[in-house]
Design the sequence.
């Protein structure tokens, strides 16, 4: 079904496109299941006038990043390592800054993006969420500044899509909700590293009061417009 023409409250809405990058696509070193299937739909949504702001994030790691399995002797991708007091998954080397795999997907016109947020640049700290880095050596999760940037522009609602569903999109949604934004997880426009994680992902979203949008036509936006009028 076509998208509803609801631009009344566009200035209060932001679309967050998380890590739509070649290294997360099929054939990449950290491929998400059928990640290529969501590219065209996200490209169209970026140009949807119901969103007053569009933010795209970009994993942007230095070589030898601490999250890479190759940075740890006798470790393999997807092994778990305790890091700063918490378990941490070790990933295949991916999205190394300046490489083609770290670029934003070239099939999408990114000219409407108001902000390109690069994350994971500190060699000592991973960064799943677009709002906060992972736990660092000081026991803190440093903020990226995105929450303040959105608030300054009057954004109240954030809608998330991209890769990977159970990692960066999930953590971003959780931090958005914790920061006080009305948060919507666009399930059909995300893909996981492994679909075995889907049940746990939906449970975590529900526990944090995050709206899971299953309808591909995004009709929920019309419902939001109606609630503003009440």
Sequence:
């Amino acid at each position: 079904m076509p998208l509803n023409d609801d631009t009344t409250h566009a200035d209060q809405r932001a679309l967050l496109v998380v890590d739509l990058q070649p290294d997360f696509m099929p054939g990449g070193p950290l491929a998400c299941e059928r990640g290529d299937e969501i590219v065209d739909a996200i490209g169209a949504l970026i140009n949807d006038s119901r969103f007053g702001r569009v933010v795209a994030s970009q994993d942007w790691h230095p070589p030898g990043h601490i999250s890479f399995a190759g940075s740890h002797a006798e470790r393999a991708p997807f092994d778990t390592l305790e890091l700063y007091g918490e378990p941490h998954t070790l990933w295949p080397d991916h999205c190394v800054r300046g490489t083609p795999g770290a670029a934003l997907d070239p099939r999408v016109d990114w000219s409407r993006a108001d902000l390109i947020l690069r994350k994971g640049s500190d060699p000592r700290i991973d960064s799943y969420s677009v709002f906060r880095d992972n736990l660092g050596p000081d026991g803190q999760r440093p903020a990226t500044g995105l929450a303040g940037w959105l608030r300054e522009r009057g954004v109240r609602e954030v809608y998330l899509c991209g890769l990977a569903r159970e990692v960066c999109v999930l953590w971003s949604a959780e931090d958005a909700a914790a920061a006080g934004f009305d948060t919507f997880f666009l399930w059909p426009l995300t893909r996981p590293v492994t679909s075995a994680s889907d049940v746990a992902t939906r449970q975590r979203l529900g526990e944090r009061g995050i709206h899971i949008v299953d309808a591909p036509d995004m009709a929920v936006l019309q419902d939001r417009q109606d609630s503003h009028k009440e």
Remarks:
- The radius of gyration is 17 Å.
